[in-house]
């Protein structure tokens, strides 16, 4: 593979990574908005649903951190003139690279944790008694 082919593949890989980071931001943000809608319509709130909301919010924050890390990684790689692994700019780029991976995986993990937590909260809500006063007491106790 020639130098031009390698550059093309590098560019395509960056496009996929960029789309993945945008997807993490969108799925966590959409989940948080849908949970706000759910809470507003059911008027029932319990601990697992609150934890799910926090997980989705943190997932958005980590997705943004991953995007910032990706930008800083590419900025440092682009500013490095000679690909010497002893160069401080390459080490700094490597740190940002690892931060990007960690933040992206954390965002994905938080999405999964939010889904599990909200599922548990929905199970609690669905198994609550139909009497509104008892249901509110159970929702309060679940906190």
Describe this structure in words.
There is one protein chain. By secondary structure, the chain is mainly α. Helix content is 86%, strand content 0%. It has helices at residues 3-42, 47-79, 88-126, 132-142.
Give the termini distance in whole angstroms. 59 Å
Count of alpha/pi helices: 4
Global outline = elongated
Mean pLDDT: 81
Sheet of most strands: none
Residue share in β-strands: under 5%
Keywords:
86% helix; mainly alpha; 143 residues; 0% strand; single chain
Chart the SSEs and their pairings.
Elements: H1 3-42, H2 47-79, H3 88-126, H4 132-142
Helix pairs in contact: 1-2, 1-3, 2-3
Concise description?
This protein is mainly α and 143 residues long.
């Amino acid at each position: 593979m020639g130098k031009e082919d390698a550059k093309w593949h590098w560019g395509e890989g960056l496009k996929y990574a960029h789309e993945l980071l945008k997807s993490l931001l969108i799925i966590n943000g959409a989940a948080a908005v849908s949970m706000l809608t759910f809470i507003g319509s059911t008027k029932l709130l319990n601990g697992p649903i609150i934890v799910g909301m926090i997980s989705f919010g943190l997932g958005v924050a980590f997705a943004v951190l991953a995007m910032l890390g990706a930008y800083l990684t590419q900025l440092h790689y682009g500013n490095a003139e000679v690909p010497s692994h002893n160069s401080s700019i390459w080490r700094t780029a490597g740190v940002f690279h690892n931060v990007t991976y960690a933040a992206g995986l954390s965002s994905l993990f938080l999405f999964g944790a939010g889904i599990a937590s909200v599922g548990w909260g929905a199970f609690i809500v669905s198994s609550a008694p139909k009497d509104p006063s008892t249901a509110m007491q159970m929702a309060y106790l679940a906190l």
